[in-house]
Amino acid sequence: MNKWLKTGCACVICAFLLLLLPACKQEESLTKVKVAEVTHSIFYTPLYVAKAKGFFKKEGLLVTVNTTWGGDKTMTSLLSNGSDIALVGSETSIYVEAQGAKDPVINFAQLTQTDGTFLVARKDEKQFKWDDVKGKTFLGQRKGGMPQMAGEYALKKHHIDPQKDIDLIQNIDFANISNAFASGTGDYVQLFEPTASLFEKEGIGHIVASFGEASGRMPYTTFMAKESYLKNNENTAEKFTRAIYKAQQWVESHSAKDIAKTIQKDFTDTDPSIIETSINRYKKQKSFSSDPVLQEDEWEQLQSIMDEAGELPKHIPYSKLVNTKIAKKVTSEQ
Q1: What distance in Å separates the CA atoms of residue 24 and residue 212, rounded to the nearest whole number?
Q2: Which domains does the chain have, with CATH numbers?
Q3: Residues 128-165: pLDDT tens digits?
Q4: How many CB atoms lie within 10 A of CB 303?
Q5: What SUPFAM superfamilies is this protein classified in (predicted)?
Q6: Surface-to-core class of residue 7, CB atoms within 10 Å of its CB (0-12 exposed, 13-18 middle, 19+ buried)
Q7: CB neighbour class for 54 (10 Å; exposed up to 12, middle 13-18, buried from 19)
């Protein structure tokens, strides 16, 4: 390589490094926030929109999201300071409180307001009736988790006793439920998107009902943090919530197709048409909260469902584990 070529290469490298330097400095100046999500699902679309549209960075935050696969693992991450904020079902904060936590886990921003699962049948049942599940094998979710409790609540509303009228299987790990059904286990299964739509497209199963529609509104998935974190990092929590609210409003006002394109990078292994179909299902049944304020009637509905399932350790007042101060502040700004 002659000296002119060497000099040219060195100049190109230097120029590239100079371009990277401002970006590195900018990233270093951002406040880091670690989020643990209970699963990675299109159900959490507004979170991924906040990342993709740069809403977090506009608030001066560098948000990293780690999937922890299960409510117990997510709460362990939060309580052990492995994460700053958890995205998980509100029931987990009640379980922690019932165990006498010295540093309570506080729900401060709501993301979803209905159950996000669908009833998938192995056969294509054009005229499905809830009574059709009686006497059949039902592949449910983890006992004590919100999907399972909401599922049981919906079944009981339709006069089906989950313990007597169906063969209920709920000892399969959350991450393996879809694989178990695909392998031939069960006549019905309770699935989140995009798996439900994917199974339908591939002919593995057919969506016949929505547990979200059947069980009503509740604080199904919320952002929560330890009380001490919110006290010591109130400004950060406010910026985080403002970014989420911007994303919620953006999702509310855009089409499923536009939203699907925006979050595609978070679901690179999923067909774009499946992402769009999944988002459309959730938008139609208003699963995505349009703002982060968790309402008291939703909190009480949650505990009613837990009580009905025999999983409510004790009734926890709304004021004890819900803090709407930040959410109300950011929603009043617009």
Answers
A1: 43
A2: 30-114+218-331 (3.40.190.10), 117-215 (3.40.190.10)
A3: 999 999 999 999 988 888 999 999 999 999 999 999 99
A4: 20
A5: Periplasmic binding protein-like II (SSF53850)
A6: exposed
A7: exposed
